[in-house]
# Entry
Amino acid sequence: MIHRRLLAATWVWVAFWCACNGSAAAEPAPPVFPPGTLVETLHGTRVPDPYRALENTKDPQVAAWMKAHSDQAHATLARIGGRPGMLEAVRKYDEAASARVVQPVRLPGGLWFYEKRGATENQFKLYMRRGDSGEEVLLVDPEVLQKRSGKPHAINYFVPSPDGRMVAYGISAGGSEEAVLHLLDTRTRQPVGKPVDRADFGGVSWAPDSSSLVFNRLQVLKKGTPATQKYQRSRVTRMVPGQLPGSAVFGLGVYGMAMKPTEMPFVQFTHDGRWAIGTVLNGVQREVMIYVASLDPAEASAPLRWKKLVDYADEVAQFDYFDDQLVLISTKGAPRGRLLRARLDAGLASSQVLLPPSERVITGVGAAADAVYVEVRDGNVKRLLKLSHGAGPGAADEISLPVEGAFSLADGESTWRATDPRVPGAVLDLGGWTRARQIYTVAADGSVANTGLQPQGPFDVPEDVTTTEAMVKSHDGAMVPMSIIHHRGMVLDGSHPTILYGYASYGNTEEPFFSTSRLAWLDAGGVFAVANPRGSGVFGQDWYKAGFQASKPNTWRDFIACAEWLVAQGYTSSERLGIWGGSAGGILVGRAMTERPDLFAAVVSAVGALDALRFEDTPNGVPNIPEFGSKKTDAGFRALMAMSTYQHIVPNTPYPAVMFTHGVNDPRVEVWQSTKTAARLMAATRSGKPVLLLLDYQSGHGIGNTKQQVQADRANVFSFFLWQFGLPGFELQ
# Structure
């Protein structure tokens, strides 16, 4: 019955849309998707889901509705008078530097690998060179693949072999993140062996002699297998270059290992060839399990004999290896972290405290040839500590850095690390709110030098931009940190167009970062504020867990408090205040909007997680259960219900203007999270303000987006806000 109604209503409207587009008539009003009558009863609560039909994105009628709505959103944005100028400003700032360099990897002998995108190029490419100023060698160019297929491709990860003679890299199309693993000979620049599919997560580690590598490989999904199984039962596979992948060496069912299907295994070989270290992740949970296996040459042909060293209860989130020992960050009994050292042959029973808990938050660790380097957060600024090998507990020296800002010793999205146990010192990608990132080396003597790998652009150190740091009292008295970026000398008269941005999930912190596109917003008279509500990790584990599952409402209430503070202090007014968040940040902005629709003029949700109750029924929803909870339990259901924007949309409410942006190929947050919420909001709002659904059919979650896609997105977001704030020049034409 519902399906037949959908067929009729959709095709009637599509015919109307085509007729209007074929004439000079004004744009049609946004279509209203016909709601269904589906109601589920979960833990004694009736839960309506009137737009469940939109989850079937392969249905031709649903696809037509999505496409028509997206076309209308694109057409509306194109009519904003100031958008062409805004796009030009974004391009000017973004392309001012001759190139942008990311993911620098330094091997022994001064051999560098990195990704670089020139000012006139659309995608990052993989390069190699010897020394800071050696000749660049282009290894992988995704734009060649785009010319062949018509789809944008991106490098998801790369890992050079220890001798630098090969590089393993993953590449995917259209933002899908479905990476195919390739091997390349860096001398001949020819492929080695055949590409390997189902290598989405990578997790590549090479044997110390470069003779083989291991990587995480997803299972084959047989016909009829539920989509929620996609990221389950993955295993670590070993492969000799030029040969087909061999048998699994770590994971579910391997040599008696006890693992859950939902857990994800990874393996790394130690640089000295003595150990294999297995890491088990419970989805997005921060804490990990650690296994070790000896790599005794006499048993090279025998299966690895794994021994558990660390369990989830030990609350270890990061670690590194040096000289038969692990250095580990544990939050057990220390919400801001403590640094431990433990021998692999004895486990945590042998652990020694290297850095005790303090007011600083320990956020990263990396072992180099000369020392262990430790990343700590001091407020919202990162500091770098150095503990020489063999030094006693607490014997850490602080490295003086040239920028008060942020860096990372490891990238959780890839296998990139800032340190190498075969090379002294570290490589830092360091920047701040008003300083563009540069790539520095830290030497064994503590000196810091700019590598020159990242060219500095003319707008990378703007003198007329400053940051104000604030602590805002929330609904229950908690003090929430917020950074406000603006031009110097700004008068607090309540007139400034303002964007408040946040995320507040997984314990991730919005650290100081420079954005060239943000300069275009500031030039329009704008203010850009970044909040770290509970759910972020700015003050450690306690702050994170205070915005987690049942306590998640603190995140959007902290965010609302920051918005109210900006108005009260005269930065802006409700008529010129917008909020912006993406992915799990969709929970933040969506629930702030539904709880306080009067406070904001406009909202942008990018690839937002908006229908929390249905997230668990998606492939990436299962790995996210540790973060958000499960509707299978009463407590989990109530937490998910509270954080669901979709379920808190109230009919006949004057909602702000809203723009939902989403990549159709998103593997992390299904596109229907946005389409369902948009449809329900369109039917509910009585403000007369627009609800736009802007889809990108050559994009996913934003990972690997081309420069053109990113620039267009920024121009769309800024122009949408300025249009809704009533800024002169940004009216519809």
Residues 596 and 696 are 29 Å apart (CA to CA).
